[in-house]
Amino acid sequence: MSRNPDGHRGQGHRGERHPDQGHLDRSLAAARAGSWPFPHWILDDMLPPEPRAALLAWDPGPAAAGGENDGRRAARNGRRIFVTPARRRRDAGLAALAALFDAPPTRAALQALCGARLAGTALRLELCLDTDGFWLAPHTDIGAKRLTLLVSLSMGPGAGGWGTDLMTADGRAVARASGAFNSGLLFVPGPQTWHGFVRRPIHGVRRSLIVNFVGADWRAVEELAFGPAA
Q: Nearest CA to 98 among 224, 216, 229?
């Protein structure tokens, strides 16, 4: 199966290897597993050059960046930005990003690494632009999300300390993922996958990519890079 330009699957061959597959495969193969406070994987050099450059060049305007909130990204609904079918048609680099993560070899490699069940899931890609004052309350991502991958794309002073905080069920931050440029934090959402972002200074913009594979019960289909899985 392949996808039509409107984002839904159509007839064709999906077994072809994506040209950037080797880059992502190497990152996944070198993933470092962690068990505290929940199973997770740390990755380096996640995104290939073309998709990475497209994400760095993407300027959706000042309304897309935000700091002070109530500890939920949902508080900024209406101003959040996603790699949608329309965006893919306008930007070859973002189209390459979506195609890479939706490719069957990528799905297979992710499943082999972390045990996520990705059959029948759809791909969701969100670019986040966080500014000073931003924080995220502890949450687990359970529900329709079958896999979460957070990729850091920040550069500049202090950016290495802007990684996601890993937390216990009582909300204590006990570990922190690296915020190093193009590093990633991967986990399979479950009852123990508490994480968030403890408020701390952000000098500039904390730019990151959230990659989710979501089940058929995901309602906000307008956020998807490709239409719901058949």
A: 224
| pLDDT (tens digit per residue) in 185-199 | 999 999 999 999 999
Q: Helix H segments across the chain? A: 21-29, 49-57, 85-90, 92-102, 104-114
In three-state secondary structure terms, 14 is coil
C-alpha 186/C-alpha 22 separation (Å) is 19
List the alpha helices (DSSP H) in 37-175: 49-57, 85-90, 92-102, 104-114
φ, ψ of residue 127 in degrees (nearest 5): -95, 125
Residue type, position 184, single letter: G
Predicted structure pTM score: 0.91
How far, in Å, are 52, 132, 158, 171, 224 from residue 211 at the CA level? 14, 23, 23, 23, 10
**Alpha-carbon dihedral angle through residues 106, 108, 109, 115, given to the nearest 10 degrees:** 130
